[in-house]
Amino acid sequence: MFKPTSFSWLFAHEINLLWRNSILIRTSRHVIIPVIFVGVVFQAVALGIAYFLRGQNFSLPVMIVAANINLIFLFGLMLSRAMTSAIDVLYARGDADFLLASPIPPVRILAVRMLGVTASVAAPWMLLTGVLANAFAIFGKPQALAAYIMIPMEAAVATSLAFLLVVVLVSKLGPRQARRVSHSLALVVGVVIFALGQAPHYIPASSLRGLWLALMPNDQNINAPIWLPARAMLGQAIPVLIICTLCTGFFLAVLFGRAKQYADGTISAASYAGDSPPQRDNGHFRQAPLAATMLKNLRILLRFPGLVTQTVYRSLTLVPVLMILTGRVAIGTGPEVVVPLLVFLTGQLALFFVSIITGGDQAPELLASAPVLAATGRKAAYAAAGYASLVVMALPVIGVLLRQGGHLPALLACMAGCGLSNLILGQRLPIPLYRPAFGKTQTGTVLGLILGVSASSVWALLAWLLVVPQLPHL
Question: Is residue 450, in this structure, part of any structural domain at all?
């Protein structure tokens, strides 16, 4: 279709590689059907939201604040995703030397990779914002279609900044540490979003109202440059043109500014340098096969790059739990609400930890060929993942014991059942956590995640029925 080595040919190849390496393709053969189904469902929900809001007239300052907050959150999430993708396309593939040795201009190679990352970063948010834009346009607000321009522009800026940061981080820290920085950035953004969502519970209403009023523009500064992105998101023509010009200029500046460094091999050379000098491991395995395998699994957990960040993400439920147990917040029936939350979290942590162990074991055939029982590996994975889950859940369980000791038997029984169910499920259908080597198959499936959430929900419902059997509110 396209001339070999042309920009169009390279870009089509880059998009094909990113598509084949996406989590959708890596975990499902028939990906188009669920994507279309999810898109139709999202569009139906968006139409309902737009229909409900069709008669609402919000003031311009309120709409600007809402648009600015959404753009800031989206930028943080896009930047984290773009940094991970930039590390992959620049270092993980290992094809930079071959391309640099070809007669293809380096700036063309870097351009298609930056554009490919921009497309992959913008795609999921285009789905979410696009369906809302379509719905609002149908109900008489065509300016909402500006989202189709602003989301790619924001993704282009995030990608450009990510490529700049990645080159510096990898040269100083190495690819693995650079990836951890991107995970930490995602963690900070996620915690901030969660904290703002819980703000009404720990900030007085008067203070919260004053905060929002302070963030709103007034008649004197509504035309200030700081509000340009929000006004462009709202569909104002001149701000859209200004933002597009600035974003495109920044993208081109990064592209041409880094092309020479890419051609000199500075970027590709960093991929061959180790993250840190080799260190001697002073640990010693015990003689018992089960104990030795369990210790090995615990080390696999500790070496997972996103262990801390993803554990914190999954444990954000503990924030309202601790606030309820300490009496700072009253939600629903009080401490009884805590029990199903802890049961659900136990199952999700168990599934997460056992999936790390299953996906991170690079030589399972060694244990399979060893003179030990066939169930040793499975039991050791259960023991290590269960131990890690107990470490995280110990403090809230003690809080339940001190606050409402009568609920402890039901809590422990349901936690054990939920954890064991997810351990068995995760060992057979681990969730996809590891990005496979280029050209390799994915370890894990989204089906495991869906079934894990379902199993945890069932156990959480059972725990709630045990601690609130009368259901007085029904």
Answer: yes
